[in-house]
Write a structure and sequence with these properties.
Layout: E1 27-34, H1 41-55, E2 59-66, H2 73-82, E3 89-94, H3 95-103, E4 114-129, H4 137-146, E5 153-156, H5 161-172, E6 182-185, H6 188-196, E7 202-206, H7 207-215, E8 219-224, E9 247-254, H8 260-275, H9 277-286, E10 289-294, H10 295-315
Parallel strand pairs: 1-2, 1-3, 5-6, 5-7
Antiparallel strand pairs: 3-9, 4-7, 4-8, 4-9, 4-10
Helix pairs in contact: 3-10
Length: 319
């Protein structure tokens, strides 16, 4: 499955360091709701928004609330119930929640919040502990081909993009996705602790979540899931003989019931954030791709992504 950036027909992005969009206004405060534990990709994006927006004078201050559970759907329900009409609150979410809503049959969905902007896209990475017996993706693939249930793999939530990626790898190996020994955690932080403690054989997450541990040598990156290499030293799954390309998008949503003017202020702040040189530098440092999409194009992308995810999860027996 590919998640394609639907950027055709959009206006060219503003030049970093140039004039900010006319609709950008400083927000006195921004409450960022993260439906996962600290340390994961959604939390990382929220903290990145805070760092650059406050330093760039776009937001006065930020406050955070983290609530994990069921691939973000527990937090989504809380956000919808408690933030309705709030003009100073946003939810950070993305591809993982799309799958989790379907697999958990959540009564609350992304249709209950207001899409504001897609900000980033990121390749996934498969890692093992530094002392693992698996030194290449091919070795791990052979073990998965022989007996998937004997190779526990950690990730964030059942039905998440991590789970989908493992399912696609197994299908590429001639196995069934439902044979996976997928160990679900309520966010990237707990999953990282499990792999660092060698509680599982391997783990899947976004590159940015494991990059520091990979650079420090505490984890070994076997392969990434993008069309091209995220790191020159780490091959893609395709280069390892597995026909899998998958990326993870993340974005920002407003509460239900906000008025058009409030939504425009949030969108303007994020559009201005996207133009800042500091934001582009942060993307490069974390291995995130600039996947800017807003307004109607983002809403259309979301509808297409939900349909594509539903089809893949059904095909993989995960929903």
């Amino acid at each position: 499955m590919r998640r394609r950036a639907l950027l055709a027909g959009l206006a060219a992005p503003y030049l970093a360091g140039g004039a900010l969009p006319a609709r950008a206004q400083q927000l006195a405060a921004l409450n960022i709701f993260v439906p996962a534990n600290p340390g994961g990709g959604w939390d990382g994006l929220g903290r990145a928004i805070e760092q650059v927006a406050v330093q760039g004078g776009l937001v006065g201050r930020c406050a955070f609330e983290n609530l994990a559970g069921a691939g973000g759907t527990v937090g989504l329900a809380r956000f919808v119930a408690t933030r309705r009409g709030r003009t100073d609150s946003v939810l950070v979410s993305g591809a993982t929640m799309v799958g989790a809503i379907l697999t958990n049959r959540s009564p609350v969905s992304l249709a209950d919040v207001v899409p504001v902007a897609r900000l980033t896209e990121e390749a996934g990475v498969i890692v093992v502990p530094r002392d693992s017996r698996f030194t290449t993706m091919q070795q791990l693939a052979e073990a998965l081909r022989a007996d998937p249930r004997a190779v526990p793999v950690a990730g964030a939530a059942g039905g998440s993009i991590d789970h989908v990626m493992l399912g696609l790898v197994l299908r590429a190996l001639g196995r069934q996705a439902r044979e996976a020994s997928f160990v679900a955690f309520p966010g990237g932080g707990p999953a990282q602790a499990a792999i660092l403690g060698s509680q599982v054989a391997a783990s899947i997450s976004g590159w940015g979540e494991f990059a520091e541990q990979i650079r420090a040598g505490r984890l070994r990156a076997l392969a990434t899931s993008g069309a091209t290499r995220t790191d020159p030293a780490v091959p893609t799954l395709r280069e390892c003989g597995l026909d899998v390309v998958l990326t993870n998008w993340r974005g920002v949503f407003a509460p239900p019931g906000i008025n058009a003017a409030a939504r425009e202020r949030l969108a303007g702040m994020l559009a201005a954030l996207h133009t800042l040189a500091a934001w582009q530098a942060l993307l490069a440092d974390r291995g995130w791709e600039d996947a800017w999409l807003a307004d109607e194009p983002f809403q259309r992308f979301l509808q297409q992504d939900q349909a594509a995810t539903a089809a893949v999860l059904k095909d993989l027996g995960l929903a």
